[in-house]
Amino acid sequence: MPSLQRLLRHPWVLGILGILAVLLLWWITTASGSVNKLFLPSPQAVWQAGQRQWGSGLLLKDALASIQRVFIGFAMSAGLALPVGITMGTSPVICRLLEPLMGLIRYMPAPAFIPLLIIYFGLDELPKVLLIFIGTFFFNTLMIMDAVKFVPRELVETARTLGGRTLPILLKVVAPFIAPQVLDTYRINMASAWNLVIVAELVAATEGLGKRISLAQRFLRTDEIFMGLIVIGLIGLLIDLGFRALMRRACAWAN
Amino acid sequence: MHLQIADVSKSFGYGARTKEVLRQVSFAVNSGEFVALVGSSGSGKSTVLRLIAGLERPSAGSIRMDGRPLSAPGSDRGMVFQKYSLYPWLTAAQNVAFGMELQGRPRAEIRERTGYFLEVVGLADAARRLPRELSGGMQQRVAIARALAAEPQVLLLDEPFGALDIQIRESMQEFLHNLWRRTGLTALLITHDLEEALLLAGTVHILAPAPGRIVRSVTVDLDRSSLAHLRVSRPFLDLREELAQCLRGLEPALVA
Lengths: 255, 256
Ligand SMILES: Nc1ncnc2c1ncn2[C@@H]1O[C@H](COP(=O)(O)OP(=O)(O)OP(=O)(O)O)[C@@H](O)[C@H]1O
Ligand SMILES: [Mg+2]
Description:
Chain A has 255 residues and is mainly α. Chain A has helices at 2-9, 13-31, 43-55, 58-90, 92-106, 114-121, 125-149, 153-161, 166-203, 209-218, 222-250. Chain B has a domain at 1-76 and 202-213 and 247-256: Rossmann fold (3-Layer(aba) Sandwich), CATH 3.40.50.300.
């Protein structure tokens, strides 16, 4: 059937089929009763847990708390990584000064900073936001630095022979050239920001999707744990798609 | 305008790793002239152009324009690179306007000059296309228009047609020749193609490799009313053969 073939060629169809297949498998497994409901709740139970938490306003409150932390921490990280990365990419001296340091810190697992952050800043918002900052800033910076280093020499030199000075060249040549890579860098590192906020909330928080999961564990509510995981995944996916859409619109020349 | 390259030498690297690329190169370019520099790959042709453009500093010697020493890049020397150097996120028209915007010219003037120079290079229809939608020859014509629009006193061309296939190359040579005749621009062309140099330039310098130095300079005084005829005319072919022998003599022997 040609229409079926055309349908299958749509970029999303196979992906959605994959998800549906797992859902179906999940449903069959739980419906057959072969697995303890405590370990693997049914899809319906998870859906109901979601409805309960949505109805009580808890889900929205948790999601907003987590999203806010991610956005503040990541905005700081992304905002600072841009000038620092561009400076490192353009100045060999500053690059040699900072790259080893950043390369070292980058390999320190961010969650290992949690104890320190709690000692320094207590249990408020600040340590969670800082954790996201620490966990993404060095990756963001080094990846932006690399993007700057790959700006073709001819593009910069052409601007210089047309009378361009340092700042206009940064704004009109370097910035547009690296824009697609920068957006992609942000998209990739956003995933770790999203991981880290959950880790931070598992350790210490009064609200947030991670907090809800660790509470659910205490009461053996696996349905709520599943629900939390799925919501976290969905929000992450949405952010990812948002970045991709932004990239398609803002950097059409690079596609 | 008088561009004077006097006893320019250039070495890269320090200490034991020093590499002498140019040794005491001297020549001049005057307003309205078309000068070509021919040499084999690696003889230092691009380095000469980069020195004039101010993208490198000479190790010794001086480069002066109207008596004033040149040390930094400036819009008085326009450059066209061998590799495509158009900004991929800008349309052809925006690329042409790029230099004028850096110079801070008034908007109306930029718009008018952009249209004019796209017309000059025969690409008025392609104004709104992105570089990746243009052929290699069209891209180089946009690059030439961009350089010209910034009103340079001399146009520096670094093997501008080196990456094009032979037919397009020939039509681009016609194009550049007509452009030179029509606009009276001053050009310094770098090429490894002797025919291209002899077709276009009134003065041709031969650059010997390792280290790069000028070993011969010829004035080419031939009838250029039709390049197609010139290509196959007797005096042209004789001159080309004579210089080709000179170039061949410069190549290091392949078998020791
Ligand atoms: N920045 C640099 N540092 C070190 N060596 C360099 C540098 N630039 C050029 N060279 C060397 O100088 C020599 C001449 O280079 P140049 O690019 O001027 O040659 P060319 O005649 O333009 O060659 P081609 O025809 O391949 O473009 C080469 O051996 C090259 O390795
Ligand atoms: Mg070269």
